[in-house]
Amino acid sequence: MLQSDGGASVLTPEFYVTDRLLFDASEVVGHHMLGSPVSAPGGADRTGVQNSLLGQLGARSRVLAESIVALGYSSADDLPAALAHLTAAEQLPGWAPEQGKEVLYLLLGNVAGKVGRLTDAERHYDRALALSPEYARAGLGKAEVVFHRARSDCEPGGVDAAGLQRSFDIYAKARTGRQPAGADVASKAAMGEGRVLSCLSQSLNGDRWVEAEDRFLQVVRAYGGRNLRLREFAAEAHAELGMIYRPWGTAEPGARDKYLRAADEYTKAIALYQETGRRRDRQAFFHTQLDYLYTRVPDLVRADAAHADALRLAPDPQTAQGYRDDHLRDRPEKTP
What we know:
Blueprint: E1 2-4, E2 8-11, E3 14-17, E4 30-33, E5 38-41, H1 47-57, H2 59-75, H3 79-90, H4 101-114, H5 118-131, H6 136-151, H7 161-174, H8 185-202, H9 209-223, H10 231-245, H11 255-276, H12 280-296, H13 300-313, H14 317-330
Antiparallel strand pairs: 1-2, 2-5, 3-4
Helix pairs in contact: 2-3, 3-4, 4-5, 4-6, 5-6, 6-7, 6-8, 7-8, 8-9, 8-10, 9-10, 10-11, 11-12, 12-13, 13-14
């Protein structure tokens, strides 16, 4: 951002990452400051003033260029190329740590996490937090890494309960950190906390279902049909609510109403993803959940329709076969 009053010009180096570019990088989306502003005497329309401002940016302008290229590769799922450009940016000389280097470590942490290098990802987030302890985005990223390392499949006996609690604490701390425009830190932290609480409950490390429900409802309310940055978060929150609301079995009191309530949440999740035109794989999975729920109501017409949609949206033949196997296991009277 460039400001000038004729007597002096001030350039604030910043950039904005849209969720249309990186829809699965929640801690990266939004405005980013790349260090402190630089200034020069004179109006911004003067070539000499412009050259002075760019000269003061020094390595930061080259870092920004590398980062933009890396974001482009990341959006195209070419993660090795993205990582290579971010690594090159980190190695550029003349960039002082206090001039926004935490942003680069945030991007490095995000890409490292995507390729499954969780130890590297946490190290990058820690470096970002060392430079800027109130950097909420880095806190969200670190909490996510710790969660994935601890969760396993969230089944009893398989989780690291202490690690899950650590993830929850990091999410909670991020709520109090620096929250720039477009970051939606509180909602993203609520989503993360809800997933941790749900995993602890599912793995029988406490009964935290009510707290988890509250966090997911916070996300749904924050979306409110208006904040499109949170639309996919709301979709996942509805799916998480569907998992919470389903009964333990058909013999549970009020089971039919509970199955239908859960189905309603998965239907809302699918509708939100349909609005984006993305994540057919998630839509397919949610349809398998509808198949399961409607089978137990029972409403076999809707169950079969959901199964057909799951097969239509399945990302690959192997996944589709798995959906068929699950469907036939739940409906033993059917033949392939």
